[in-house]
Amino acid sequence: MSPLPAFDASDPLGIDDLLGDEDRAVRDTVRSWAADRVLPHIAEWYENGELPGIRELARELGSLGALGMPLTGYGCAGASAVQYGLACLELEAADSGIRSLVSVQGSLAMYAIHRFGSEEQRQRWLPAMAAGEVIGCFGLTEPDHGSDPAGMRTRARRDGGDWVLTGRKMWITNGSVAGVAVVWARTDEGVRGFVVPTDAPGFSAPEIKHKWSLRASVTSELVLDEVRLPADAVLPEVSGLRGPLSCLNHARYGIVWGAMGAARSCFESALGYAKEREQFGRPVAGFQLTQAKLADMAVELHKGILLAHHLGRRMDAGRLRPEQVSFGKLNNVREAMEICRTARTVLGANGISLEYPVMRHATNLESVLTYEGTVEMHQLVLGKALTGLDAFRG
């Protein structure tokens, strides 16, 4: 009988054993890129409320194969769901804004075109988006309609052989730097998706400023003022809310992993700090209350990673249900927030300093908790699945 492997504080459950060589290579490549290109600058970007060089970063991410990772063809990597999840974890360990850039590009804009677009739309947009040469955004949320997209007011009407779009979208990641927007609008035929070049007359995307969360991320409003599009701008393979909701489900899966990246960063920061910080003549890591905090954080962190891995294997097998994605997002984001808060207490006053990543991750997760479905929405999705009763409308 071979001896037991040594206990690994960075992988206490041995989850790494579930990964293949290619999985580890993907993870390590993204981790190395983030360490080189993001971590040295992210505190300054966050403090200044900007993401400078976003187009260059997008091209670099494209060269890594990180944009549209699970999609096949058109320059996409055709990676597994688990590999995409590992990439999301490493990107969000750097910052939620960087993972959001990748998620919106690949899981929302590119996924919509790949899954529901025409061959002409795929050929026109996907290779450039996969390479990071064109940034995309996804317009669903409106100023007055977030959790209830069925109430959207943006409309598209036919005018001869054209479509004319009018309306507003809100809280759109990548909006003001995008070259293409996938916009969902109400039509006489139901909700339809449109591929909108952002240089179309009547389209504008003013950037949203004064955010206290996701500060190193481009967030915009989309304004569509009689934007005229040709007939072939519509996504031909879907109508109704099934289209945008399936895209959101794909993006939520990435968040299940990504939230654990933010949590890991905070846990590692707290663990390292506790070993070095001395009080009452010894490191604070030697006190029972601190060890209890570290143990609880480690348990929830690695349970969350194990849950993400399980959902990834189900997605790769074609067996992942939307309710299971809701389960993962609800649990992992909530637990990530609690890990961040606990890590802040371990660091004491230093926990609020940008010298450490804890407060930055904590404030970012306040947005992650809300976007791609609020806590309440995911609770109701699970509640309906458990009871068979729909409580969404009272």
TrEMBL record:
Q: Which Pfam families match?
A: Acyl-CoA_dh_1 (PF00441), Acyl-CoA_dh_M (PF02770), Acyl-CoA_dh_N (PF02771)
Domain spans labelled Acyl-CoA dehydrogenase/oxidase C-terminal? 240-386
Q: Which domain of life is it from?
A: Bacteria
Cofactor names from the entry are: FAD
The chain positions of domain Acyl-CoA oxidase/dehydrogenase middle read 137-227
Write out the GO MF terms: fatty-acyl-CoA binding; flavin adenine dinucleotide binding; glutaryl-CoA dehydrogenase activity
Q: Which GO terms describe its biological process?
A: fatty acid beta-oxidation using acyl-CoA dehydrogenase; fatty-acyl-CoA biosynthetic process
Name of the molecule in the record: Acyl-CoA dehydrogenase
